Amino acid sequence: MMLFKLSLANIKKSFKDYAIYFFTLVLGVAIFYVFNAIDSQTAMIDITSSTRDIIELMTNTLSGVSVFVSFILGFLIIYASKFLITRRNKEFGIYLTLGMSKRKISMILFLETLFIGIISLVVGLIVGIVLSQLMSLLVANMFEADLTSFTFVFSSSACVKTLIYFSIIYLIVMIFNTISISKCNLIDLLHANKKSEKVKLKNPVICTIVFIIAVIMLGYAYYQVTVELVSIDDPSKIFIPIILGVISTVLIFWSLSGLLLRIIMRMKNIYYKGLNSFTVRQISSKINTTVFSTSIICLMLFITICVFSSSLSIKNSMTANLTTLAPADIEINKTLDMPLEDAANYGYTPAQAEDSKLTVLETLEKLDFDVEKYFTDILTFNVYATDDITVEDTLGDAYAKVKEGYSNLVYHSAESFIKLSDYNKLAKIYHLEPISLKEDQYVLVADFDSWINIRNEGLKANAKITLLGKNYYPKYKECQNGFLYMTSSHVNIGFFVVPDDAVDESIRAESILIANYKANSEEEKEQIEQQVLNLNNHPYAENTSISASTKIAIYEGSVGLGALVTFIGLYLGIIFLISCAAILALKELSESSDNKERFAMLRKIGTDEKMINRALFRQIAIFFLFPLILAIIHSIFGIIFCNTLLSSFGSDQLLPSIIMTAIFIVIIYGGYFIITYFCSKSMIRERL
Amino acid sequence: METILKIDKIEKYYGSRSSLTKAIDNMSFEVEKGEFVAIMGSSGSGKTTLLNVISTIDRVTSGHIYVDHEDITKLKGNKLNKFRREELGFIFQDFNLLDTLTAYENIALALSIQNVKVEEIEKRIKKVAEQLNIKDVLRKYPYQMSGGQKQRVASARAIITNPKLILADEPTGALDSKSSKMLLERFNYLNEELHATILMVTHDAFTASYASRVIFIKDGKIFNEIHRGNDSRKEFFDKIIDVVTLLGGDLNDAL
Fold first, then answer.
1. Which of A132, A160, A410, A528 is deepest in the core (most CB within 10 A)?
2. Edge-to-edge strands of the sheet including B62-67?
3. Phi and psi (nearest 5°) for B15?
């Protein structure tokens, strides 16, 4: 009973120390609940069944990510509680000298963790439940569904899950506490804060050299991931810049801390002004020992910023591209003239081989689908291909050069051709630029960035192609923008538009049908869409390898995928951000508690309270800003890199996601900074 | 002679109504400009409380304290801080130097918080370093210095602002006898040559014997007071010991 009272009193007394710990726990619990409750939040929203499938996929992925997140939070909480124990070493030392057994002290800690755990779980869940109502709005917005009416949703499964995960975390924390108490010595506990750090100034020459080396390394890494990088075909292309980046980050912090101290000390007018000398020394004395952790925090912030902004921009650009990428309601294609003798090798049935003699229109007839009834603006044409002309052939003299750069690509696949007149009709429906050709010219149409780069090499080399004994040369030295199949992203690796008489039916390869739905409203479109989907159930369906892409399906799939990526990005981003900020905050708080005596001394010699607060503010601000600034510089290149990587998704939507990222960082990181400042302020005010 | 410090019937109580402790009980005395006063008393006699209220670290319950005719018990907030940094110089038993700063920077801090120009800071430190014989240690950090050196650096910090009054709280408490002697001789130099007014709290008779006047306090009241006059330091020391004996061995750690 006495232990019970003691631990309660301890929590009340050291509430200031616990503020950051408590804040982190509450945030952790709330975020955990919110992302696990998405499932129930979406139950209320009016969405189609295919979207429902995507949400289920999303829920499963998020719960997988939650396991990872719980590990991060677990480590963070253990770290935080370790900090609290160190803060209270003296108190435990006194208990021990009074004859309390270590077991009893562990018991006190156990009870404290229990109280804090229960309170934080309750508060965190309440915050989480409130936040998850806001989440409904976000989810509805993501899936572009109307939130018909606001309903208060409580997810009991997410709640139970949160309780279980955090109980386990708290249990592990208790075990760790017990271990750390049982291992410590009385003498160390009592004299815990008697250690004073020796200040070593680094050699400025070495610092300068190291700094220059680090900057060069970093510059090289940046260059590697941006300018040099066209596509990733070799893992070392990424790993080397990453390793260089990590090493140079550590080196920059190491050298900069020494250099800045030297430089500011030289500027006597600044150095000997107010408490500047004190602040500079405070920072430099710590940055010497915290180079490693500062680097880790910098790198974590870097990852956070990249994950955040990339995931948000994927969602933005995905949906932004759709209007141009899915201009018609439906596009149907099927392979023509599949040879019967290859059926077994390539995994199609003889019946399908038989069906492949038919065009899309003929097959639709077999499926009893009334094209005229449902479709309008119908365009049908064929795509041609021959094994005589492969990617290698179309690169012409540039082949050797390209092969050197992209050794992993397949160069012997057959190229596709479309007749000029067909393409111009297609261009009209797809809102593409029409093309005109002289009789010996061709035009390459593509929209996949990395392939465009490869193709352009061939075009620049004026690569000649030979069809039916006649030679054709490129009209333009660059690929023209365009595509044939409707997809959710820019993945057209290229096809050739040639004069109508360049090809004949002997090399036809594919039949295409493009059409709009004969409908006046969204509902009617949905109904026709359903008719198309129902074709799968037709008895003839298994005899054909017809495939369709519809605007509605592309739209839903892409919105869903975008949302999935965004949610995972948000989840991980927030957790990472919390971890960075909490670690920094705890470090700074333990700093401040160590610095109590120094501030008390400043006060004794008559320093103004304002001056002291300003010095404290600067000190904490610099510790928070230092890693952030380098992380932001890293991120500029990181985001450019991510964009190259995800270029197929389109990348023109960066600004809004960067603004969103900035808002999140300001709220979470800034929030931690302010709490740290106020806690530190009240800490250094304590009487000794 | 001009009165620099006037203590007027001050009282300081601790605790609540039910259990009241009178740390200072109706105490009055004056210190004149250029005096070197030692206050002696055993643990719990109220000497540290006295120093705290004079240095405005603590407040009196009743009574007034005048420094250069200004009632400092009426000062508040930033005026208090201003008073402390401009009119007072502090020397503590445990030096209270910032371990992250060099000796030079520690001394400079007292001036930089008054926004003194860098050139002026440099000039004054050079001068004070000569007076206190610490020129060799200016570049060193506190952990690289001996106790005596640290205390002289702290003294330099205390006098560099040309304070009206230097308050020293057991300045020799953490020093060996040789360093103590050296420090006290420096105090005498500051007092006699630079006319600094020093108020020193101690329980050590040897330390007190360097002062020109010793005030003995017991249970929060002034018990006795002796002037050095024209006595040699040795004679004055013997007189102090007599009073300590009279106090009844309360200062049993006086030697």
1. A132
2. B21-32, B3-14, B62-67, B70-71
3. 85, 180
| Pairwise CB contact (< 8 Å): B105 & A606 | no
Q: Which residues of chain B does A607 touch, with a Cβ-Cβ cutoff of 8 Å?
A: 81, 85, 113
- pLDDT category at B215 given cuts 50, 70, 90 is very high
In this structure, are strands A508-517 and A375-390 parallel, antiparallel, or unpaired?
antiparallel
Contact A272 B112 (CB under 8 A): yes
Q: Which pair of tokens denotes residue A183?
A: 């291992």
Q: Are residues A116 and A233 in the same domain?
A: no
Nearest to A616 by CA among A588, A597, A585, A590: A588
**pLDDT at position A191 over 70:** no
Q: What is the ipTM of this complex?
A: 0.82
Q: What is the pLDDT of residue A653?
A: 62
> What was the pLDDT predicted at A398?
81
> Domain total for chain A?
3
Q: Searching chain A, which residue's CA lies closest to the CA of residue B140?
A: A199
Sign of the CA dihedral running A471, A476, A479, A484: negative
Read off the pLDDT of residues A455-502 as tens digits, 9 standing for 90 and up: 888 888 888 888 888 889 999 888 888 888 888 777 888 899 999 988
Given CATH 3.40.50.300, say whether it is the number of domain B3-246.
yes
Contacts of B75 in chain A (CB under 8 A): none
How confident is the model at residue B255, as a pLDDT?
43
Q: How far apart are the first and last CA of chain A?
A: 30
Question: Is residue A85 located within the same domain as residue A98?
Answer: yes
What pLDDT, on the 0 to 100 scale, is given for residue A165? 92
Question: In sequence order, what are the beta bridge partners of A480?
Answer: A445
